[in-house]
Amino acid sequence: MMTDPNNDMLDDLFAQARAVAPQPSDALVARVLADAGNVARAEPVPNADPQIGIFARFMELIGGWPAVGSLAAATVAGIWVGVAPPVSVEDFTASTFGEPVTIGIFADDLDFEIGLLTDG
Amino acid sequence: MVALAEGGLLPSADCFGWVTGVARYQMNMTSDSFAEASDAALLVAFANGDNDAARDLTARLLPRVLAQATRMLANTSEAEDVAQDAMIRLWKIAPDWRQGEAQVSTWLYRVVANLCTDRLRKRRGGVSLDQVAEPEDATPSVAEQIQTRTRLQALSDALAQMPERQAQAVSLRHLEGLSNPEIAQIMDISVRSVESLTARGKRALADIMAGRKAELGYDDD
Fold first, then answer.
1. What predicted TM-score, i.e. pTM, was given to this entire model?
2. Does A17 reach chain B within 8 Å, measured CB to CB?
């Protein structure tokens, strides 16, 4: 079986290439080690999320959903105290700010006057 | 001190830092501080801030990285740039390296092959590079050295004209002497694909080189 002269040439070229075994120069080693030092010393890149929205920033500011729950509870309690104040709160406001003044929308004499007008 | 997976303990950090790296590298070429540690364990140690690990990885891996680049590119300056670039990528991937998933050497073969084919692609523009790696052996005559350089340059230029995957497969098989299963891992393809790529690649290479037989001194063969 004849050998392919082109393959013989390639095999010889491959053998010559495999024989190349360069040793790294001192300069190259210095460059590689300097790179290693630079990478090791590099500051970690902050992982800022550009997608974060205003709502997320607000939630982060107030402390998340637990804070929202507390806020909601405090708001409801405040409204309820305003609508139907307990006795203790009434006593406290009376002693601090004076007696409360009650203004009736439908005064008794108004009913009377309406009756006069009707009859007359 | 960082405990290695292999059970050894890393030596204390070099108090002189990176400045003394080259000197220690030169002195300790044969006395690897982590002789029992795997490349991956050294990489983890480097990521944990151990300077000695970088020196030992450099001593262990840089010669092979440089040799692969030199064989493919036949150009000392370009091969050194590729070797440096490959090692930078190694340092950068260290914090994310997962032991057991891949071999460092396999990963480096792939990186160097890709970097080299990138360089070879740019060479297709017709720019001929003339700085060829000097043969280490000083005994051949000057004429023989010149011929060897010319041949290796021609081989590299021929690789530049081939499809990149074929060039990578051929170089890993015939210039690095790796087995087909090893190449399959490096290139992330099947062994059958490697066989196909290397066969077609070698035929393409032979066709390209056929026209340069006389020039390269293969007339008498």
1. 0.65
2. yes
